[in-house]
Amino acid sequence: MFRSHFRIAIRNLWKHKGFSAINVTGLALGIACSLLIFLWVIDERSIDAFHANAPRLYSVYLKIYNEGNIDASYATPGLLAEELKRTMPEIEKASGIGWSATNTFAVGDKILKEEGRAADADFFDMLSYPLLEGSPREALSTPDGIAISRKMATAFFGSPQKALHQTIRYDNHRNFTVSAVFEDLPANVSQPFDFLLNWEVMKQENSWITDWGNNGPETLLQLRPGADAALLEKKIENFLLTYNRENPTYHATLGLQRYDERYLHSRFDNGQISGGRITYVKLFSLVAVFILIIACINFMNLTTARSSNRLKEIGVRKAMGAVRAQLIRQFIGEAVLIALFAGVLALLLVLLVLPAFNQLTSKAIALPLHLPAFWATLAGLTLLTGIIAGSYPALFLSGFHPVKVLKGPFQQKGGALWFRKGLVTFQFVLSIVLIISTILVSRQIQYIQAAKLGYDRENLVYIPIDGDLATQKTVFRQEALRLPGVMAVSQMLGNPTNLTLQTSEIDWEGRDTQNKSYFMHSTVGYDFISTMHLQIAQGRDFSRNFATDSAGYILNEAAVKKMGFKDPIGKSLRFWGKQGQIIGVVKDFHFQSLHNRIEPLVLRLDNSKASGIFGTFQTGTFLVRIQPGKTRQVLSELEQLNKILNPQYPFSYQFSDREYDRLYKSEEIIGRLSIIFAALAIFISCLGLLGLSIFTAEQKTKEISIRKILGASSLSLFRVLSADFISLVGIAFLIAVPVAWYAMHQWLAQFAYKTSITWWIFALSGLLAILIALGTVSIQAIKTININLVKSLRGE
């Protein structure tokens, strides 16, 4: 019986090669697209999920209640980890984690720049990063020790074994002893690093970390077995009140989040975890389902539309005693066979496009062909596709009565026709939603790229201050300004693209004693405002002509508003205990991504002579403004200057506009994926529409011929063939608009600054859908209109 059904299925596929090709291609594209998204989703969910202690690892986040708003972030006081471990018996291990820093290391004549962090001694006991040399307890046990990666050990010493206990020089400032070598981190790590320093070093070189009023580092906890995270979260909620006794009305609380959930759930809304990359995971999971459904709908439509070609076969088989269950099994079996062919083709397509997909998404996804689970998943996906695609046709075809189908021409009932039209409408609803979403995502990315940030990011270069440059800042600046093409030079803590440090240790003239707000802060050099092309709202920039500017402060408009000043110039302000005056106000500018609103900012003058540990990241960034068209020449001359002043360290730089674009890398990837998946969905829908138009044209060939003989124009004939399809697209558009509006309104809510959802986007999407449908239908319509009348009516 099986062999007989198999032969019949193969014969039908071969007999109708065109429709079979459309079915197989549509299903293959649907399965391939779903498989790619499935692999991407699995990779996203694997980030930080491999740690053995994952169920007991928690990140601490800080919630600050301020003027009716609740701001939340992972930036916490630097002493929090050790204090929580000391006072809370539920906590087994704890570690502060420093921000990522790129620093220069030297061993002999070899000098390399590496990215790393600082962490507590518990770090390697908490996280599952395998050590090749050394032990977890000794890796970060002393301030003079450093843990490095296999890559770094091999580059400097030849092998991990040779690296242990060797000396390595850090930023030409301090020597460290290699206390451990860890395996290179896998790709599914959210916070990569190639070296780790002991947390005591971080505290020694950054005295502000020891003040409970300053936030910056992150805090990671490991709970004891059996400890209840929810109860612990309630217990530590008001933990900081104890350490801010000078202002008991200040309100900042702590929360806990599973460490392996943080990568996907890192967005806060009014102090609550409300999303993040999980939005994209859910979105593209739905897209995968939608595209697969569209492909299955194609199969259902084409199979039921061509049912008249199999009526006699069904009638004969029923007359010979075949029961409906047998026919259902046969037709579902045929659908599964087609899906099997499509699955094989889909796998080949994935193998072909995976390298390009990885490049597009900045991933390193590989097909796990060696895992039985992958083959089981692919088989299950293919089987499910076949069953879904074949279920309705099987029920539809097996339901024909043999007497009716054998005694003469059989007309399909209106119910079947309306069901097919409903399927086509649903296809285009999904396609139009994807078109609208793609346009809006692209518009938001364009909005981000064209946004007025309050400073000019074009022709602005960041140069990290490392090595000997740390003690020759003035010389570098003077020599750089002599170079043709250099317009201005200044310096800044970090860079203007992403400031993260905040403090509440600020007092000002007339401050309400109940007000202890947090402020972002940074140190800058002379000519900072002119170099950045910022706009002065009041007062002036830091100047060498005023010795008192060493204790002066510049605020942004948000800070002035926060402090309640109407005329802030000359007002007294105390920062970290240092008394000074406000000398200037700059108009608000963006120093973080557009996801965040502009925060209050205080700028201080940097008078430091050298940078300390992590200083090249904190205080050592030169800002160089270059004349348009002279970038290459200036960078070459700056490199020569670096060789003279800083011969032991390689010259490096970043462009401001590229650093800004990096903030929105995820959005750009999502935008590109949206375009690709929307195009695929539309293409698959068009395949089904093409197949239906071919079938419709075949059914109306004689009608069209008679109309032509009676004098009908080509335009009127085209309307006859396309009217039904265009009306279905119109209905789909009316359904898709509110769905797309709601989905995009939710997505745009994560941006503090965003594009608007305007009417023309929906109008353009509807027009595109109609043009696509018309273009698809016209392929067969034109062919039908130009048919030979003699051949068409020969049998009449």
Automatic annotation (TrEMBL):
Stretches that traverse the bilayer: 21-42, 283-302, 331-354, 374-397, 418-441, 673-695, 716-737, 757-782
Cell compartments where the protein resides: Cell membrane
Membrane-protein topology: Multi-pass membrane protein
Residues of the ABC3 transporter permease C-terminal domain: 286-391, 675-788
InterPro entries per record: ABC3_permease_C, MacB_PCD, Macrolide_Exporter_MacB
UniProt xrefs under PROSITE patterns: PROKAR_LIPOPROTEIN
Superkingdom of origin: Bacteria
A Pfam family assignment: FtsX
Chief location of this protein within or outside the cell: membrane
Every MacB-like periplasmic core domain range: 20-238, 429-639
PANTHER family: ABC-TYPE MACROLIDE FAMILY EXPORT SYSTEM PERMEASE COMPONENT 2, MEMBRANE COMPONENT OF TRANSPORTER-RELATED
UniProt-recorded name of the protein: ABC transporter permease
